[in-house]
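Journal club side-thread
Mid-discussion, someone asked how the predicted structure for our own chain would compare to the paper's figures. Pasting it here so we can look after the session.
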Amino acid sequence: MSNFVVPSNTPRQYNLDLKIEVEREIDGVGMGVLSDGSPFLNLRGLASMCGVDSSLITRITGDWINTPLKPREQKIRELVRAQGADDTIAFYAIEKNGTIHHAVPAAVCMAILEYYAFDAKTSNDKAAQSYRILARKGFNAFIYAQVGYNPTGASHVAWQQFHDRVSLAYHTVPAGYFSIFKEVADIIVTMIRAGAQIGKSFIPDISVGMAWAKYWKAENLEVVYGARIQYAHNYPDYFPQSMSNPQPAYCYPDDALAEFRRWARETYIPNQMPRYLESKVKSGELPAPSAVAAIEAFKAAPALPGA
């Protein structure tokens, strides 16, 4: 997502209520969906689809509310109004991980694409092609399809993020050992079905892994089952944790698997998981109803496989 410097006169549309729900970079084009379901392109992604240098898009947004408007910005804002949209907003500035990111809404993206495709002095085949694709498919539908977002159910995002993690973790654990992430898949699936938006900031297997490691050491289980070892665990590139990929994670001897499943069923789920979910509610990472639904789901859930 774009985080390069924007001129000081740029209209900075901060919105503390919006967050980035999901984002991807597809063929060099940064795009995503905000927490209210609004699709967007980032500044560099829009520049790529327009077939222009990113500095031009930066300049347009920088001159967006100047008085008087230059002919280019005036024309583009007219194109935004023609769509029945608010032409005072060039982008939404959203803080993520301590950095301001710039999400350009659909109407502005389409207006700028239309300008470069048909109104700019120099013809631009790339912009024309992009405009026709988005006009034919619809901006919302195109972005939703590209990033795997289902507007009829936010849990789809959680499923996609879980799927992406599973794809990266598949066959990465050495033979003869089990990983916490793979073994708590049933826990994660149950939480998602209950409505928990598990994703980039809500990763239950970290909590389970830390609690199990503490139990492993306290009970001196290495003497019983053999030593645990580390393997390389990777997160999807749109997770903040991916910046330090690959991350060392512990895997445990297969002989300890039954012990782990018993501990998860009898100790972690009834005693420690509710406290973990409560902490996520307090930090704003999990809606309270989702936490309650997850806990209730586990009360009715069958035992973990093999337990």
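Post-session note: The chain has 13 helices and nine strands.
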